[in-house]
């Protein structure tokens, strides 16, 4: 029995050491414990983002995989999916992930009047604020569609992307991984969807592949802050290229 316990302790210590030494561990720990951004001017930084969640089965498995790798990401959530997933969203927030708004029911925002815009964006903002106790949520318009009305009404930065493998199309894990890895650059923003099992598999393989190439994963706020760039309400951002 003592020998068995000793083996389990050794395995636990090894797992902890691996977590500490993972390429994004410094970013992850710093974000969670000090709310600071690690200054890594010479490192390759990249942001992994997910749309259309949360979905309990796939999002939870993704969070498990990201936690094992010491990686933080940014999740743009659908407001109508907040109910019954509050614990999943609290976990995202607690583990250092950034949370954004992707409208209440995936509605294209362009050419909406103020009342319809508020029903999509401000309703979701209020739900997240009441759940998490803060109000620093970014906006990602569905389909990447924006106009001057969206910019005027956003009340926060608008985040698009520089790498989109369209993982929703054929749900081909291998293709998505190769497309993202081949296009990765310092300062890129990757778009994936955490509602498909194949996309979760692809995301974790992407993390492993890009870790091996020396990339650090971080949230949108961390990415821009590390590059000395200020995110401003109503402005649209595709990347944080040096």
Strand pairing plus helix content: what structural class? alpha/beta
CATH homologous superfamily placement: Glycoside hydrolase/deacetylase
CATH hierarchy: architecture: Alpha-Beta Barrel
Helix content: 40-55%
Structural commentary:
The chain has 242 residues and is α/β, with parallel strands linked by helices. The protein has a single domain, classed as Glycoside hydrolase/deacetylase (TIM Barrel, Alpha-Beta Barrel), CATH 3.20.20. 48% of the residues lie in helices and 14% in strands. It has 10 helices and 8 strands. The chain has helices spanning 2-21, 25-34, 56-69, 86-94, 114-132, 148-153, 167-170, 173-183, 197-212, 220-226, and strands at 44-53, 74-77, 98-101, 138-139, 158-159, 189-193, 215-218, 236-237. Strands 1, 2, 3, 4, 6 and 7 form a 6-stranded parallel beta sheet that branches. A two-stranded parallel ribbon has the order 5-8. Strand 1 (44-53), helix 3 and strand 2 form a beta-alpha-beta unit. It is globular and about 45 Å long. The termini are far apart. Residues 1-37 have low confidence and may be disordered.
In short:
The protein has 242 residues and is of the alpha/beta class.
Which key phrases capture this entry?
242 residues, alpha/beta, TIM Barrel, six-stranded parallel beta sheet, two-stranded parallel sheet, disordered N terminus
Q: What's the arrangement of secondary structure elements?
A:
Elements lengths: L1 H20 L3 H10 L9 E10 L2 H14 L4 E4 L8 H9 L3 E4 L12 H19 L5 E2 L8 H6 L4 E2 L7 H4 L2 H11 L5 E5 L3 H16 L2 E4 L1 H7 L9 E2 L5
Parallel strand pairs: 1-2, 1-6, 1-7, 2-3, 3-4, 5-8
Helix pairs in contact: 3-9, 8-9
């Amino acid at each position: 029995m003592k020998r068995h316990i000793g083996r389990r302790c050794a395995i636990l210590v090894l797992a902890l050491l691996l977590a500490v030494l993972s390429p994004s561990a410094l970013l992850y720990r710093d974000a969670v414990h000090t709310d600071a951004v690690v200054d890594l001017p010479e490192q390759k930084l990249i942001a992994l983002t997910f749309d259309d969640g949360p979905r309990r089965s796939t999002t939870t498995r993704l969070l498990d995989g990201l936690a094992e790798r010491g990686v933080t990401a940014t999740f743009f959530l659908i407001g109508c999916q907040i109910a019954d997933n509050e614990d999943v969203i609290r976990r995202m927030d607690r583990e250092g992930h950034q949370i954004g708004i992707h409208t209440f029911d995936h509605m294209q925002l362009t050419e909406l009047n103020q009342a319809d815009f508020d029903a999509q964006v401000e309703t979701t903002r209020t739900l997240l604020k009441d759940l998490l106790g803060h109000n620093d949520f970014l906006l990602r318009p569905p389909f990447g569609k924006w106009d001057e009305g969206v910019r005027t009404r956003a009340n926060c930065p608008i985040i698009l992307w520089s790498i989109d493998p369209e993982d929703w199309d054929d749900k081909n894990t291998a293709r998505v991984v190769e497309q993202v890895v081949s296009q990765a650059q310092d300062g890129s923003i990757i778009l994936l969807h955490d509602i498909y099992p194949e996309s979760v598999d692809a995301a974790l393989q992407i993390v492993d592949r890009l870790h091996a190439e020396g990339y650090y994963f971080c949230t949108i706020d961390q990415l821009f802050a590390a590059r000395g760039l200020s995110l401003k309400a109503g402005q649209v951002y595709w990347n944080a290229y040096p």
